[in-house]
Amino acid sequence: MAELKPVYDEDGVCLYRGDCAQVLPLLPSGHGVVITDPPFSERTHKNARSGNKKSVSSRTSSPINFRHVDDWELTPILSACARVSKSWVVANLDYSMAVAYEHEPPKGLRVMRVGAWVKTNPMPQLTGDRPAQGWEAIAYFHKPGRASWNGGGHAGNFYLPSARLTEHPTEKPMPMVRQFIEWFTDPGDVVIDPFAGSGTTLLAARELGRRAIGIEKDPSYCNLIQLRLSQGVLPL
Q: What are the chain's domains?
């Protein structure tokens, strides 16, 4: 990829279609704050079922075909995020990877805290042989040096339902993403999401007066993001 050509570029929001491992090296160093949701390991969501009832394609509950990224793939991507970030990298992660990164973080980052998002409407476990995975880890990474944030004495945990507005199986709730942006960025900052997915981070950034850069590999999700950005909010 010789140059970046966004598929969407309006109102301070740019979206690039491509592999973030190839696009991130083309972004300037210290350009913004990374807030993202990488694909989880296959084991985490094995035999889970989507509960999305409101979606662009009007799908109902169906088994999820999760794309996953193993730790050997994700670690260098998070190191690339460290380069483009000026301070924080906030990522929803597989719990096992979040714990592992506390002991051996990606190059250029340190784990400041591991939080949790406890879901009030978790996806059921179809096998019936174990409890459903009802929470996700949140890794709050920071680059070496003094850290600051806008959260005061708040804890980095959330107790919220999963979002069910689009066809994306792991869409994150808007209140949580907005809180990430308010806590870890200031007005005028650039929010970078290398796994843009359903586009919630880009929408939240625009609503909060931040510029945003998204990267998404899947063409269908790129189309979904552009639709959401052009409409503002999908009709319920």
A: 8-231 (3.40.50.150)
